[in-house]
Amino acid sequence: MENEEIRRIQLTGRSTYIVSLPKRWISEIGLRAGSQLVISREGESLLLTPKDLVKPRINFLETTLKISDKDAPE
Known about the structure:
mainly beta; two-stranded antiparallel ribbon; elongated
């Protein structure tokens, strides 16, 4: 699979831009018409990732519990 290809940005309507993707890329990745992509900005770049491969972002809160024998119920 080729990793790079040049495509033109096309204007459709008055305020929407589209970019076509090579059919072989879509087939090789297992996508089809109607598949959803997540588009992320990374600096001056755009990253397209199939929605099913994006892991939800979870923020973890770390805490420490100190338990002693005197805290145990009688």
